[in-house]
Amino acid sequence: MTFAYYDISADADVHAHEHHNEEVWHVVAGALELTLGDVTRVVHAGEAAIVTVGEHHSVRAVEPTHAIVVDYPVRESLAGIRLR
User: Which of 13, 51, 59, 72 has its CA 20 to 30 A from that of 40?
Assistant: First the structure.
């Protein structure tokens, strides 16, 4: 597993993409607008969303947000940084 801890500024976003890892977005504080395929919903503090393998998704911070993102299996790279 890969665990990443993010402090995200309001209106910051992650472009639409997909990857070969399952991914869980756990919002610790704030709120994220998460789009999975054609469905968009807001994930609030204390909630989590699961992105399945190969699922097209994007994320936008509705407000300043702290989130933990977990990927399985281990990511080869994250935010352009090679991890393995």
Answer: 72
